[in-house]
Amino acid sequence: MKKSMFCIFCIWVSLWGTPRTWGGRAGGGVRYDDMRMCVATDSGVAGGPMADIAVTAGYEISGDKLLRLSVPLMRPLLFGLRFDMVQFEPDITLEYYRNVDESLKRYFGPGAGVSLHYGPDYSSGTGDDRGDDFWAVGPYFSFVKGVKFIDSNSSLGLRGAYTPLVPLDSDRSVGTVLSIAIEYGRTF
User: Fold this and answer.
1) Three-class secondary structure of residue 103 per DSSP
2) pLDDT digits (tens, 9 = 90+) for 135-168
């Protein structure tokens, strides 16, 4: 099923040809997470600060709608190389644009993706106190609202997200991840 959905998405995107815009997105905020270990907080704290940097590709649907694919880079690389963990959350956002004036647009829209986790749970310590690693996966749902500065091809927005993480071993319960982040984006 997952492979079929991925193939359908790839075919669908290829029908549009080359992305209209390429860019990047950087964001930071906070999250509640009762499943995954947070490397920035003490053992037993469910959540903490979050940040990521992603590459983006935008596909114009119409004059006021854009489908944006975002592939995170910072957390997957940092967590993989430094902590032997996986946190990977690629997503697609449907952005609706409304003109405010010649130099400013407002945008908003829903997003969806997948969240992949490999590592210990939030009660784990580090070093010799590190708990057992496990895989978890879940859908990633978000909503973004912000402004786009037309002259500089940059944007500033606020994104809220919800992810129910399902562990792939049967002795853990489903986890909840809630987050809110400020995002800065730039297109080329």
Assistant:
1) coil
2) 999 999 999 999 999 999 999 999 999 999 999 9
Residue 12 gets which letter from DSSP? H
62 pairs with which residues across the strands?
65
pTM for the full predicted model:
0.85
Residue spans per domain, the chain? 24-187
The whole-angstrom separation of Cα 132 and Cα 116 is 17
Tokens of 160: 């809220």
Strands (E), the chain: 21-33, 47-62, 65-72, 86-88, 91-101, 104-119, 134-149, 154-167, 175-187
Quick: pLDDT tens for 32-57: 999 988 888 888 898 899 999 999 99
Residues with Cβ within 8 Å of 152's Cβ and at least 6 positions away in sequence, in order, are 186
The per-residue pLDDT for 16 is 54
Considering the domain delimited by 24-187, tell me its CATH architecture: Beta Barrel (2.40)
Report CA-CA distances (Å) from 152 to 26, 174, 188. Answer: 16, 42, 10
